[in-house]
Amino acid sequence: MMTPKWILIVDDDPSICLTMSIALSDLGYELETAHSGEAALAAIEQRNFAIMLLDIRMPGIDGMEVLRRVKLNAPQIRVIMMTAHGGIESAVTAMKLGAVDFIQKPFTPSEIRNLVEAVIQREALDDSMAKDYASCIELAKKCITDHRFEAAGAHLRKAVSIDPSRAEAFNLLGAVLEIQGAHPSEALRNYHAALALDGSYAPARRNIDRIAGENKYRRGKIDIDRNR
Questions:
Q1: I need a surface site. Which of 47, 145, 208, 213 has the fewest CB within 10 A?
Q2: Element (H, E) at 79
Q3: Please, are residues 221 and 228 in contact by the beta-carbon 8 Å criterion?
Q4: Distance of alpha carbon 65 from alpha carbon 71, whole angstroms
């Protein structure tokens, strides 16, 4: 008999936990919920979770501190950050800590389901599968989660070489450069390239505004991927 795989949903709003549990109920994973950071940390001591959906803003131990402790004590857990409050500063910090992806509240059940399915499918990829634009993007995200930032950059540059007309790889490459501590001008060069290719690509615009100090982050997907 196969050992069941588990997803942990962490949010201080029980109604959100219930909605997400229903949305994810037929993915083939067992589901558990926690309504605080403290409860989430207690849960990971008792069970081996594959994925955690983690709200950033909670009373007591907040999501960012939970993420730090999870990545220290259970680094195999793929953590998706959820926020109604976050700015890019939180996103970049969470990426450095190893968050696998982000979603901005409010989201629909289908949006959270699609994101979790993408994270599950991403785990089956390895570096040899970087054959097309989409696989290069997904492998780059997997490498970011594993703190393999050089490899992430390599996959993103390959994505650019495969299709230099698309904005996403340039935007994500800018974020990787920021994580690696590159000069802001290097990241900006990539964000501006993304925006030049697609003037409606909001993640790149928000990244540019943030670096310029304008703080114009608004509701939507966090500034990594518009099309999740």
A1: 213
A2: strand 78-83
A3: yes
A4: 10
Do 102 and 80 touch, CB atoms closer than 8 A? yes
The pLDDT of residue 6 is above 60: yes
| Contact criterion met (CB below 8 Å) for 31 and 112 | no
Beta bridge partners of 7: 31, 51
Alpha-carbon span 106 to 90, nearest angstrom: 17
Q: Give start and end residues of each alpha helix (H) in the chain.
A: 14-23, 37-46, 63-73, 88-97, 109-122, 133-145, 149-162, 167-179, 184-197, 202-211
How long is the chain? 228
What value does the CA radius of gyration of the chain take, rounded to a whole number of Å?
17
CA 195, 198, 199, 205 dihedral sign is negative
pLDDT single digits (tens) 99-133? 888 888 888 999 999 999 999 988 888 888 888 99
Place of tokens 């007309």: 165
| pLDDT tens readout for residues 184-218 | 899 999 999 999 999 999 888 888 887 887 444 44
Are the CB atoms for 223 and 205 separated by under 8 Å? no
* Helix (H) or strand (E) run with residue 140 in it: helix 133-145
Per-residue pLDDT reduced to its tens digit, 33-88 = 999 999 999 999 999 999 999 998 888 999 999 999 998 899 889 999 988 754 54
Distance of CA 23 to the CA centre of its chain: 19
Question: Which string of b and e fits 190-218 if b means at least 16 CB within 10 Å?
Answer: bbbbbbebbeebbbbbbbbbbbeeeeebe
